Amino acid sequence: MSRTRLRSAVGLVLAAGLILSAAACGGDDDAPPATGNEKVTLVVNGLPPATEKVNHERFLANVAAFEAANPNIDIDPREGKMDPQTFQAKLAGGQLEDVFYVYFTDPAALIAKRQVADISKYLKEFPVTGQIKPEVLRVFQDDKGGTYGLPYKNYSLGLLYNRELFTKAGLDPNSPPKTWAEVRSAAKAIAGLGKDYVGYGDYSKSNTGGWHFTAELYSLGGDMAVNENGTWKAAFNNDLGRQVLQNLKDMRWTDDSMGSRQLLEWADLLNMMGSGKLGMYVATADNIPTIVNEFKGDYTSYGLGPIPEGKGTLGGGEGYMFNAKADPAKIRAGLKWLTFWFASPDRIAEENKWASESKQPVGLPEPAIWTGEAAAKQAASDKQYANVPQENYAPFIAAMGTIPVKLEPPNAQAIYAVLDVAMQKVLTDRNADPAKLLADAETQVNSILAGVR
Questions:
Q1: What is the pLDDT of residues 368-420, one digit of tens each?
Q2: Where is the signal peptide, in residue numbers (predicted)?
Q3: Residue 441: burial class (beta carbons within 10 Å; 0-12, 13-18, 19+)
């Protein structure tokens, strides 16, 4: 879901020893040779605003370090990230940065419209990119394997739970529920602890309800929308979609394990978790530091498990792509910049040390974009500088490689707004009919998807 996300500034940085090698002249798979002394000014965005003083200064410090190591490259950093409302105007007006920030939901459309540069031929000069998880890099590739950008961070939804409440309710805090039936049982036990205890919480307002409906549908192996011969259609009005709503309805009305307060949106569940009265909800790992820092929680109280059923989970992330007008010198300079900071395992320790000293969380299970030696370096550094109880996230980590991560549907926010209504109804009306709610939502979502190309 595209929304403000509080994240740690754990930059991923390449060792200073990386040397840019010139590609030899050759066939179609070779990049144009580098001259070695080209002066390049590279315009990049993603600079945190000055109001985020610590992260803003860290970004500029990395710019200075990069320029010192690469005297032929000047970085012109700009604030801002991907904004679909202004992107086309910036592109048409020649104002788009050379290297620009995107969410994982952006690359497919940009690649299809040929609005980004193909960087495939240059990647052999930056071997560290070969250690990025293929499934993560695939977000930035076309159907032929051409690559147009690099990931920076990723995330996926799991089950966030209060370990202390699990213990009080006679549940094993080291073994969170693996199925929705187990979630229901655990929620009932936690709600039985007494007045004001809520076993399981869920959203239903400001598009967050549709967002969670999507995650819970993915967990059962379902889809929100499918592309049939170039036409997108809703795909949730079926047994799996009805199962999501019926399960919530049963927990809310039959078990009374979801509390009477409903119409919840993003901050509400974090606040409830921080209060010590909520047992579980579906969330990303970065909710944990927000609960601690903004809602008086304690890191030791929270565990993270995989999403129940595990047939899929909703995920996303951030990365950088290249302006389609970027010449070879700028593409190389951009890759040098990204592999210096945003896509490198070799200075993870330095960044983790800085994050720890800045009292930002180190040791959360995601981001996790690396494989092989790079992943081992990240794990070792995370363990060395961890300031969160990593053992509390062991169930999530153990399942990470086994659960497919799926992205948001097209026009996600509009679709989520429609499904908010279905979530609201089952959580506020004991007579709500999941089948009718999904049939009505299907009609509306198909109208939304009719404009997607």
A1: 999 999 999 999 999 999 999 999 999 999 999 899 999 999 899 999 999 99
A2: 1-26
A3: buried
